[in-house]
Each structure stands twice: as C-alpha cells, then as structure tokens.
Specification:
Elements (H helix, E strand, L loop, with lengths): L1 H21 L11 H15 L1 H4 L20 H4 L5 H10 L19 H36 L6
The structure holds heme C.
C-alpha cells in the first residue's frame, strides 16, 4: 500500500513539473493569434486612419469633408481588393496607385507587419456592417409586427 502512495505522489509530481513548465511559455495571445493582431490593427487604425475613413470605415471621418476627394468607404472597397492591392495603397499612398493624393503614404510611418495588422482589421468592417444590417432588419420586422398587433409573439 505504501508503495502505491509513493507511486501516486511521484506521478503527481511529474504532472506538476510538466504543467508548470508549459506555463513558462508566453501567453497564446502573444504568439500572434489573429485576435491579438486585429486589436493591434484597430489601435493603428484609430491612430492613423480614423479621422479620414471614419470609425466604421464609412469614409466619414471628421476630416473627410474638407478633402478634395471623399475617403473610400472601406466597407465597399476592401472586399473588392486583394491583400497586395491594399498593401500597395497603404504603403505607397493614393498618387502612385492612380488615386487621390489625399490618401497619404505610410511607407515612413508604419512597418510591414503593422500594415498587415491594419489590413486584417480593415476586413472586419464589412462583417460588422452586415451584422448591423441584420440587427436592423430584425428590429424592423419586430416593429412591423408590433404595428400590426402581432407583438410579443
Ligand atoms: C487624409 C485623409 C486620409 C487618411 C489619414 C487615410 N486615408 Fe485612406 N483614403 C483617403 C482618400 C481621400 C481615399 C480615396 C482615394 C481615391 O479614391 O481616389 C482613400 C482610399 C483608401 C483606400 C482604398 C484604395 C482603393 O484601392 O480604392 C484604402 C484601402 C485606404 N484609403 C486605407 C487607409 C488606411 C489603412 C489608412 C490609415 C493607415 C488611411 N487610408 C488613411 C484619405 C485618407
């Protein structure tokens, strides 16, 4: 019986050693999981792009209306471009891509890694817009039902 107790303690010690070693590794989020990258992209977007392209990418930031050309609605444009095209316009700016000079070049401001993080974030706009639209349609349906006396069903 005593041997069994020793055996169990031994096994528990090994399990403890193995699991505590695993926790020495950096948290998964820091290993570059998409979520982490998207929140980095969000930070960069808010810092560098929001005042022209607007909070939800609609091209309606506070600076948008004083520009000779309205900033692109990223909800519409981003799904139509591939990553290379998005990369090119952010790093080179509008002029080199036969677009308005009002779209700045970020070659000297952002690293390639940061631009990749930004692109990941730009792709979330369309999804959010679709979600908002669905929620709106959902509510409109409910409002109609309430109007027709079918509420609370
Ligand atoms: C000073 C205002 C301004 C800022 C800041 C700005 N943009 Fe733009 N952006 C524009 C304008 C204006 C256009 C439209 C150019 C055109 O259609 O001729 C544009 C277009 C774009 C496009 C669409 C290009 C295409 O292929 O049609 C993307 C993508 C874009 N911007 C991303 C960004 C990102 C990412 C940032 C931040 C790092 C940013 N922009 C910052 C003004 C701005």
């Amino acid at each position: 019986m005593k041997i069994l107790k020793y055996l169990i303690t031994f096994v528990l010690l090994i399990i403890f050693a193995v699991t505590s070693k695993a926790s020495d590794k950096p948290p998964l989020a820091l290993a570059g999981l998409p979520d982490f990258t998207i929140s980095q992209g969000q930070y960069l977007y808010q810092r560098y792009c929001l005042f022209c392209h607007g909070e939800n990418g609609g091209g309606d930031g506070q600076n948008a209306f004083s520009l000779p050309k309205r900033p692109a609605d990223l909800n519409e444009v981003v799904p139509e471009r591939n990553d290379e095209q998005l990369f090119a316009v952010i790093i080179q700016g509008g002029v080199k891509n036969i677009l308005s000079p009002a779209m700045p070049s970020y070659e000297l401001t952002l690293s390639k890694q940061q631009i990749r993080q930004l692109i990941l974030y730009l792709k979330t706009f369309r999804k959010k817009q679709e979600l908002r639209r669905e929620m709106l349609l959902d509510n409109t349906d409910k409002i109609k039902k309430v109007g027709a006396g079918e509420g609370n069903t």
